[in-house]
Q: What sequence folds into this?
């Protein structure tokens, strides 16, 4: 797919089973946020390129080679595709680390292996029971009724930069398993692992042309075409709540199915009987994993007054030992944030927190290590004396900034935890599971972890309450978001369909 002898590779668009240059021949560089090194030139699709990809996906869907394939055969092919990806997982992990700025450990031990597990889960589900029983129909009694799940059609899928490989899997795996066709749009910062994924799938030759298309380029150009084009049946989006809102509005023009996985400001509640050995490190993991650049990050930490001093001493000590460094260093806990503009946003939020009256017991700074001078690095920030009404407690910062809120009654902690426009996830830490469950039941969030955080299982649904989104990913719930439901009614008594009408208007002889 590299088109020139330039040592920096050029990546093209993948449309109808072929790599092709964008019509306007425009390419943009993509970088390593750790070192600032340019990694590749990536095609910039315009509206016309996007239309070509949509048409390819439409034609492939309507031809029925994939959508009408026996589910068992689809499952067999998807398993073979996962095998092919697995065989090249270190190559993908390396791209994920270099282009996305995630640490070596996150790429190699988490994102790629977890992505493979999630893809395999959907490969298994591809052989799903497409027919579901219908309870006894009351009228007419002599009828046979069944419900079939069918693919929705052409799916436009737009993904963010924070988990580029995993988000690509979460989108394409359930859509393919259910028999849909796809136009995938990776984030402009991080297209490389998705491009590699498509290259590997292409080489297997297991998908008919047009079933899976990949369009790189600006979301502001590609996005509106995907959302408004009547040939597209569904939009699946992960990213900011602001863009999610725009997508929902645009998709309304043709009443597309929409699933959205948006922002969060997840509460993480420590109960006074928590095991501090796991709760302290768990709270750091909840917030600082990937520098807080996860939609579910536990960035509002509720700590009871009765154990506050001990908890905070341990938390700040442990946080100050987190190792900041290059992504490729296996010892690095915190790598770079994605971009210079994201770094600036984080610094502005830190200043805002100080202006709002919060106390930075750990103040994020740009590291002085010359090795890190060309990357977008910032050390962790922990704010105490945070009021849940402050903007730093309400707005998604998407950086290594933790807001600590002291509480005296659990009921008050729950009330504040729910006082947010978001509802993606939450955490509760306690040695008393019954107590923790009582709290979990009262939290308005799509996932609640008890004594854990960030663990996302292939079999369980993931998605948000309130403005964190619409619909669910993963599990059988995630698969069903890519299906339409058809009810078929068979009249076994063969009564005349128009009986009521004709009997009333023109009585039969
Ligand atoms: P974003 O603007 O929502 O971008 C996410 C994806 O949407 C990217 O592929 C982007 O393409 C595309 N996009 C941008 N504008 C679009 C439009 N008008 N129509 C359709 N698609 C569009 O997110 P961001 O700018 O990367 O990050 C901003 C904030 O979003 C972050 O600070 C964070 O709060 C939040 N965020 C949340 C998640 C999450 O997992 N929930 C992930 C990432 C970011 P381009 O890359 O080409 O712009
Ligand atoms: Mg954006």
A:
């Amino acid at each position: 797919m590299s088109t020139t002898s330039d040592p920096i590779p050029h990546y093209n668009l993948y449309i109808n089973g072929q790599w092709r240059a964008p019509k306007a021949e425009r390419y943009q560089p993509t970088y390593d946020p750790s070192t600032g090194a340019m990694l590749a030139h990536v095609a910039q699709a315009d509206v016309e390129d996007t239309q070509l990809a949509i048409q390819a996906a439409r034609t492939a869907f309507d031809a029925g080679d994939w959508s009408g394939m026996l589910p068992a055969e689809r499952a067999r092919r998807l398993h073979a595709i996962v095998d092919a990806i697995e065989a090249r997982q270190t190559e993908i992990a390396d791209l994920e680390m270099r282009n996305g700025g995630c640490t070596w450990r996150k790429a190699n031990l988490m994102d790629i292996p977890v992505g493979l597990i999630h893809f395999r889960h959907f490969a298994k589900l591809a052989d799903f029971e497409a027919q579901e029983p219908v309870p006894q129909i009351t009228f007419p009694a002599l009828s046979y009724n069944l419900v079939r799940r069918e693919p929705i059609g052409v799916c436009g899928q737009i993904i963010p930069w924070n988990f580029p490989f995993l988000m690509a899997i979460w989108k394409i795996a359930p859509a393919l398993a259910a028999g849909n066709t796809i136009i995938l749009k990776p984030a402009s910062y991080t297209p490389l692992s998705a491009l590699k994924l498509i290259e590997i799938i292409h080489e297997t030759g297991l998908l008919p042309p047009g079933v899976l298309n990949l369009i790189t380029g600006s979301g502001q150009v590609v996005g509106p075409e995907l959302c408004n084009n009547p040939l597209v049946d569904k939009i699946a989006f992960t990213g900011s709540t602001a863009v999610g809102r725009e997508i929902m509005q645009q998709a309304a023009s043709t009443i597309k199915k929409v699933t959205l996985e948006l922002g969060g400001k997840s509460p993480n509640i420590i109960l006074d009987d928590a095991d501090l050995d796991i709760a302290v490190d768990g709270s750091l993991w909840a917030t600082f994993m990937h520098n807080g650049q996860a939609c579910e990050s536990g960035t509002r930490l509720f700590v009871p007054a009765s154990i506050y001093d001990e908890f905070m001493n341990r938390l700040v000590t442990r946080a100050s030992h987190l190792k900041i460094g290059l992504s490729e260093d296996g010892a690095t806990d915190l790598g770079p944030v994605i971009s210079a503009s994201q770094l600036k946003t984080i610094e502005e939020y830190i200043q805002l927190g100080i202006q709002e009256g919060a106390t930075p017991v750990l103040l994020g700074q740009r590291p002085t290590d010359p090795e890190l001078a060309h990357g977008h690095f910032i050390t962790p920030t922990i704010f105490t004396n945070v009021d849940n009404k402050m903007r730093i407690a309400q707005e998604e910062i998407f950086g290594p900034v933790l807001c600590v809120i002291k509480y005296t009654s659990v009921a008050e902690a729950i009330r504040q935890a729910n006082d947010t426009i978001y509802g993606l996830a939450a955490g509760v830490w306690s040695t008393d599971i019954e107590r923790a469950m009582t709290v979990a039941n009262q939290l308005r969030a799509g996932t609640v972890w008890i004594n854990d955080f960030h663990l996302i299982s292939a079999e369980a649904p993931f998605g948000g309450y309130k403005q964190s989104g619409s619909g669910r990913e993963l599990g059988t719930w995630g698969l069903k978001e890519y299906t339409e439901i058809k009810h078929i009614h068979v009249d076994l008594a063969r009564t005349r369909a128009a009986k009521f009408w004709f009997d009333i208007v023109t009585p039969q002889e």
Remarks:
- The CA atoms of residues 47 and 352 lie 39 Å apart.
- The mean pLDDT is 95.
